[in-house]
Amino acid sequence: MRAVAVNVGANTNEPGFRAPVFADGSFAFVPIPESEPTREPVPTYGDLAPSLPVEIPASLADTQVHLDPEFAGYPYCERHTYGDPHGVKARPLADLECGDWALFYATLDTAADDPPAWQPPEWGAYLVGGFRLASDPVTDYAALSPDERAVFANNAHVKRERMDAAVLLHGDDRSGLFDRAVPLSAPSAGVDANRLVTDLSADSGKGPWWRRPLRFDADAAARLEAVVSSRSFDEWV
Question: For the whole model, what pTM was predicted?
Answer without folding.
Answer: 0.96
